[in-house]
Amino acid sequence: MNSQDMSILSLVLGASWVVQLVMLLLLAVSVASWAAIFRKLFALKRVRTLNEEFEREFWSGTSLNDLYAAAAQAPQRAGPMERIFASGMREFQKLRERRIQDAGTLMDGARRAMRASFQREMDVIESSLSFLGSVASVSPYVGLFGTVWGIMHAFTGFAGMEQVTLATVAPGIAEALVATAIGLFAAIPAVIAYNRFARDIDRVATHQETFIEEFSNILQRNLAVQPAFQHAQMAQHAAPAAGH
Questions:
Q1: 114-126 as b/e, with b when 16 or more CB fall inside 10 Å?
Q2: What's the chain's Rg over C-alpha atoms?
Q3: pTM for the predicted model, two decimal places
Q4: Cα 210 from Cα 204, distance rounded (Å)
Q5: Which DSSP symbol is given to 7?
Q6: For residue 236, what pLDDT band results from cuts at 50, 70 and 90?
Q7: Cys staple from 150: which of 19, 24, 70, 199, with CB 3.0 to 4.6 Å?
Q8: Cα separation, 106 vs 188, whole angstroms
Q9: Mean predicted confidence (pLDDT) in 116-132
Q10: Which pLDDT tens digit goes with each residue over 143-160?
C-alpha cells in the first residue's frame, strides 16, 4: 500500500460500514458541539453586558419605580438581572396594593418571586451545557467502539491469509484508529468549553444572588423608613391639636 492509499480519506473510505457510521455520527456530534459552543459564547457575553448595564443604572440613583417601569415596557430586551428585579418589584407592589403592612410578609413574597425568576433565568443560561458534558464524556467511548469493531473486522479478514505481514495488518488497524481520533476531536473542545462555561455561569449566578440580597436590603430599609415617616407626620398633626 502506497502513501496515497494511507491518507485519511482513503482510510475512512476503506473502513467497514459500521466504522464509517461511527465516524459520521462523531462528525455530526462535533459540528453540533461547535455550534453550541459559539451560541453559548455569544449568549453569555450578552448576559454579562445586559447585567452590567442594568446594575450601573440601578446604582446610579434612578428610582425603583422608574426602573420597574422601564423593565415592564420591554421585558424581551431586558437582561436576567433586570427581569429578577422586575419580578421582585412586581410582587412587592402587588402585596402593598392588598394593604399588607407586615414587613416580613412583604419581604418573603418579594424574595420568593426573585428566587423563582432567578431559577428560570439560570435554567435558560445553563441550556446546552449538559449537551457539551455528554459530548465530552461519551464521544471517546463511541470512537473506541468504532476502533474495536474495526480491529475485529480487520483480524477476521486476516484469518484466511496464509502469510500476514505488517503491510497487510497496518491498513486495517489504521482505519480503525481513525474512529478514536475523531472521537477525541469531538470530545476535547467540548471538555474545554464545558469547564469554561461552567465557571462563567457560576460567576453569573453568584452575581445575581448578590444582587437579590442587596435589593432585598434596600426594600427592607424602605419598609423601615416609611413607618417612622408616617409616625412623624402624625406627631406633627397632633401637636397643633394639643395646643388648641
A1: beebbeebbeebe
A2: 31
A3: 0.77
A4: 10
A5: S
A6: very low
A7: 19
A8: 49
A9: 93
A10: 888 888 877 776 676 666
Rounded to whole angstroms, the Cα distance separating 122 from 120 reads: 5
- Residue tagged 415596557 (cell numbers): 73
Angle between helices 17-58 and 103-125 (to 10 degrees): 140
Q: What are the cell numbers at 90?
A: 412586581
Amino acid at 76: Q
Is residue 111 a contact partner of residue 169, using CB atoms and an 8 Å limit?
A: no
Q: What is the largest CA-CA distance in the chain?
A: 126
pLDDT for 13 beyond 60: yes
Query: Residue 180 half-sphere exposure, CB side, CA atoms within 13 Å?
Result: 12
Separation of alpha carbons 172 and 15, rounded Å = 8
178 pLDDT above the threshold of 50: yes
Q: What is the mean pLDDT of residues 201-219?
A: 94
The candidate with the shortest Cα–Cα distance to 22, out of 182, 188, 189, is: 182
Average pLDDT value for residue range 183-188: 92
User: How far is it, in rounded angstroms, from Cα 41 to Cα 193?
Assistant: 9
Residue 2 Ramachandran class (φ > 0 left, ψ -120 to 50 alpha, else beta): beta
Say what percent of the chain tops pLDDT 70.
77
Backbone angles phi, psi at 108, to 5 degrees: -65, -40
Give the contacts of 65 (CB within 8 A, at least 6 positions apart): none
